[in-house]
Structure formats: structure tokens, C-alpha cells
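Q: Can someone sanity-check these two? First one:
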Amino acid sequence: MRRNEHRPDPARDDRDDAGAVSVFAVIAATILVMFVGVAVDLSGLVHTLERAQDVSRQAARAAAEAADAPRAMRGEGPAVDSARAVQAGQLYLSTAGMTGTVQVSADTVTVSASASYSPVILGLVGLGPRSLNGTSTARITQALQGVQQGVQP
């Protein structure tokens, strides 16, 4: 009789699986972090773009409120006081922490607001800051009893 005879169990696979779960876990965790990074940074990018658009709208509104009141009171129609409009628009942009431009024509103000977004997670793999712009236009109109004047229905 032989002692300690080792007989392989045909139901048991002798391959060594040690570490297989660890490799899978590392790969799965990496993919998960990539997806979370894309989600976080994409939402931050969209938020920054929406903020730039909102600030440009509000700056255009603030600039358009710099109407040339004496001209309007003389019945000469709506117009923008260019110097006051540019000053009001730039003040709004700087108060919101953004840079941009304010352009004025006879009865229209166009504001472009610029913002920058630096990726939080994807910045770790080399994606740098992105510059985003929002542009809006406001027009001064004349209204009488809530009805815009000078526009054909």
C-alpha cells in the first residue's frame, strides 16, 4: 500500500485561478471611473455653457435698459445710449465673473460672454480647459398699452 498517494479528482479543474478576480476588478473599476469622469465633466461643461448663455442674456437685457430716454420721449422711436449700454453690459459681465463683448447698434444690443471649464476627472488624463461662449441679443421696442409699436402683425 502506498502512502499519501495523490489521485487527481476528475471533477476538479487543476488550473490556477488565483488573481483572476483581481484583474477583472481592476479593469471594471477603470471603466467605471472613465464613465463617471465623462458624466461629471460633461455635466460640468454643459453647466458652464448654460451659465455663459444665461449671463449673456442678462447682460444684454441690462445693456438694453440703457435706452436713450429723451429721444424716446420726443417720439423719435427707441434707441440705445451706446456708451451707457456698453458700460452696463460690461459691468454685468464682470460682476458675474466673466469676460466678453458688448456691441450696440441703433436699437439692438448683442453681448457675448466667455467662460472657461477645466475638467475635473478627465483633466487627470490630459484634457485641458475649454473656453465656452454664450451670445444673446436684446432689442429695444416701443410699446403702447402692452402692444409693440411699429411691427406689422
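And here is the second, same format, sequence then C-alpha cells:
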Amino acid sequence: MKKALDVKYFLTSNAFLHDNFLYYLNKSYEKLCTEKGIFLIIDDINGLSESKEFVDWYKKFADSIEMKDYNIPLYILLAGYPEKFNNLVNQDESFSRIFHYDHIDYLNSEEINEFFQDTFDSVGIKCDEKSLEYMIAFSEGIPLMMQEIGDSV
């Protein structure tokens, strides 16, 4: 089950879901009937990195999991640049006890080439080798740059 949620909207405009997130997460897990658990990705944390409200909500959420009888196999990944994670920790140092920073290497040239080839093939676009070389060089293995270049093509 793949579903995107606007986290800023979630934190500011949907108090009911905001306050009952753990309950609904547990209900979702029960409905999925999976032993594998839930892998929740919060992508592009740039806007959240300055939000004390997000840090406070997440700490309350994490503490609730520990204190209540929910047995949800859950992995949450905050995706963003290292300085954005540090901004969250600067909001409240105890945030670092909940999350741990892990650097994911940039993609290598072969992986970038595969990404562009597969993406363009899926929509019927053919790229010559020279164009691919430029896209690989300019993207520098950074997924955001790859997305921007791909979107512009």
C-alpha cells in the first residue's frame, strides 16, 4: 500500500488525525495483515526541519509507541540533507535519541544511467549517448537533481 501524505498539512490542518495518528497507524497495520511491518518514508524534510511543532509531535508519537501496547513493526525514514536533520536536533536535542543519521551514498554513473534509461523508456523517449553523458555528469548522483533533469526533458 503506497500513499502519500502532506506532512505540513497533517501537522497544521488535520488535528483529529494528528492527535490519533498512532491509533490509525495501528489499525492500518492490522488491516494489512502483514508480518513484515510498515516502512514509512517522510521525504524531503526541508520544510519540516525548522518546525518545532514537528519535533514535538514526533517525540510524543515515539513516546506513545513505547508506552502503549501497540506492537507495530515500524521503520520511519526521514529523507533529506544532513543539515536538515541537524536542524531538527537543534530544535530539541532529545530528537537525536529517536532518530539516527545515516548517510546514503550518491548513485554511481551506472545507476544514474539505468535510472534515466528506464525512466525515458517507460514513456517512449529515446536519448542518445551524448545526452545521457551530460545528464549523468550534471546530476552528480543526487536523486533530486536526477528528478529535475528528467522532468525538464
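A (reply): Looked at the second one. The chain has nine helices and two strands. The CA atoms of residues 22 and 120 lie 39 Å apart.
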